[in-house]
Amino acid sequence: MKFTKILLLLVPMVVCSYAHAEIVTPKILVAYYSLTGKTENVAKAIADASGGQMYKIQVAKDYPNDTKERRAILEQEIEQNYLPPLETNSINPENYDIIFLGSPVWANHISQPVKSFLAKYNLAGKTVIPFVTHSGGGKGQSFKDIATLCTGCVVDMDGWSNWGGGTSKKLTRWVQNQIKTAE
User: Fold this and answer.
1) Whole-number Å distance between alpha carbons of 22 and 25
2) pLDDT at 164 over 80
3) What is the pTM of this model?
4) 30 burial class (0-12, 13-18, 19+ CB within 10 angstroms)?
5) How confident is the model at residue 89 (pLDDT cuts 50, 70, 90)?
6) How many Cα atoms occupy the beta-carbon half-sphere of 125 within 13 Å?
7) What is the pLDDT of residue 58?
8) Among 28, 52, 57, 132, which residue's beta carbon has the most beta carbons within 10 A?
């Protein structure tokens, strides 16, 4: 009899506690650098699927429009491991829990502006989920680059790699799965 009375007293307390429990949703940032617009298109689809805040990584000085001239500058930056300065911004990636990080693949690696982003911000303890676009050569070393440069991050090596047209239902399912895995 005593057990039944105690149980009847405890059940409402447990139910009440459960009813007042907060469901915490992670803050999501979709940070990306895009030179031609392909990576930006994928970033928009990821932001739509995740409800995340978009952030465009911008270099302080734009690359030239002339393809030959631009290629020479990019090759020099890669060879010298030059990190171009970024535009000043008002967003702080350190305030987010999950960061989808997008880059075009340049010479088998992430772009120099994304390397600048990773050097600029302390993302230790964050979950970083890479996505890259390429012209048919695949992801190359890009996910490994992010894992190496993002000290203390949890980098999801099951990132998205596509030629840039990947704004499909498959991408949406991938985004939702990555968020569930990261939580």
Assistant:
1) 9
2) no
3) 0.85
4) buried
5) confident
6) 6
7) 96
8) 132
Residue 106 pairs with which residues in a beta bridge? 109
When pLDDT is cut at 50, 70 and 90, the band that residue 2 belongs to is low
Question: Into which CATH architecture does domain 26-182 fall?
Answer: 3-Layer(aba) Sandwich (3.40)
Give percent above pLDDT 70 in the chain. 85
